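Fold this sequence, please.
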Amino acid sequence: MNHGFFKVAAAVPHVTVADCRENAGHIIKQIKEAAYDGVQLIAFPELSLTSYTCGDLFGQRLLLEDAEQEMKRILDETSFSDILCVAGMPVAMGDKMYNCAVVFQSGHVLGVVPKTFLPNYKEFYEKRWFTSASDVCEDNIVLCGESVPFGSHLLFHSGNAVVGVELCEDLWVPIPPSSVHALHGADIIVNLSASNEVIGKHNYLLSLIRQQSARCMSAYIYASAGFGESTTDQVFAGNAVIAENGTILADSGRFSFEPRMAVTEIDLERLLTERRVTGSFSEGRNIYFAEYRKIPFLYPAREDIKLTREIHPLPFVPSLSGELNDRCEEILQIQISGLAKRLLHTRAQTAVIGISGGLDSTLALLVCVKAFDKLALPRERIIGITMPGFGTTDRTYYNALGLMHSLGVEVREISIRESCEQHFEDIGHDVQVHDITYENSQARERTQILMDVANQTGGLVIGTGDLSELALGWATYNGDHMSMYGVNSGIPKTLVRYLVEWIADNGLEKESREILLDVVNTPISPELIPADEKGNICQKTEDIVGPYELHDFFLYYMVRYGFRPAKIYYLANAAFEGRYPLATIKKWMVVFYRRFFNQQFKRSCLPDGPKVGSVSLSPRGDWRMPSDASSAMWIKECESLPE
């Protein structure tokens, strides 16, 4: 299974001005190379068969006839392959000439799309030679001996992909043709271009490509003229760019003297999911209604597509350092703003928070501190309580105390050992039996202390649990599961770690830096089971439920895109290749689905908390699921996955 991936290429061939035979040879060569690499769709630049810079030579009959003859040669020499191809050439019809994209496959032209918006300003003079698609009166044109569909409202579709085409300037207008193409079903947009280079233009172009692919919730394949075009007045650097829903997946680079291609895989399933869950996407179809002709093409089947696009193993964490810095700042501000509003609304006198010395409570305390600072409230009104129990280690205990002292909050220490032992005696539980009763009693005792102190001081209990724990149900019901406002409820564990480290590295709390970095490096544990003989943590969460980086990966693709287990497994194998064996990924995927379904009842009664990213499990907004839904179908597919 290829799981909805469609392999595409944007090609920049070498061109010779007005030498159609030479140019056709380069196009044929790149088509063959792409076919050999398993590419299913390839796009070439605008007027690539003649070159874009022919000028008044476009009025020469010989050039036009030779272009058609060489297009026939391309068809003949690539007929062996089912790759869908789009190349640019001038096409004459009666007394008009059009700047066109020719779509062909397996030796036959499927359709011809003329350019709609012709630039005729500054260095551009296209109206001197060409006519706009808006002036087309015929539905068909004869090209290479075949009568084929002709017009700007053509969509090329198979069972799994719908392709729309626009040319260069079409992208730069307020409402590009591709916007209307997308509203009528196109999920892949091809743009044949010949945009010249001037200072600053490239970055603007990339922003246009990103934004248009995002607005259209589509793939955008952009192929622009490069080396070999005339440099009489302009320079063409050759851009091959492929984007998907706002993200650049592949970019060939510019100013190369050699032919090149940008190649990657488009996730058509992902695009379809985005459109289905965004109800407003298709509403503009009636406003921008157009009569489209849908032309079938043979879906180029490939038995196996090996992914070349990067599958980031930490989808909640930006991969670029600059993005990570901006993202961490933004997340922190969202948390701070959410808590500040709740404090003001409730007129809370204090914020009460349990501090364990672990990642989640550390981040929650930092958010509290920043919210109080922003509200100009004294930090002493934050009551941090460390509640050592049977499994508390010296490392987390001293980190908890040191952190609270360094941040200037009120520090309280309340041991839960005696109260839990009394409780065990009351219910007849052997204190030496370290079962779920033993563990959960400690969590509920801590929550009772926090709630009661909040009542004493007119305060709010600030929840520390994160999104990953909510997904897995790794929280004691009516214990650490409960609070009065959960500031971390929208943040997965993998991102919590980066946030705490970012705060430490960026000097936001200089006095706490060393403690924060040690917290980041402390094994994740609820510390409900006594430490080993050396005083080290012996109950490590990831040994029990599995690596959080795997669970966050599963969570992201299940909730964000609705992918089935088989596809998530396929992506995980690519993302974690060399780090986790297939059997390990499969094992923890089964655990994830079983826990995700079985623990929904905890998410159905979550405290309020701010949504931070595109994935949230709030029952009031993003995730409505019956608590008794069956996981059988998902588990069955997980168990059938090959190792």
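The domain at 321-639 is CATH 3.40.50.620 (Rossmann fold). The chain is about 35% helix and 15% strand.
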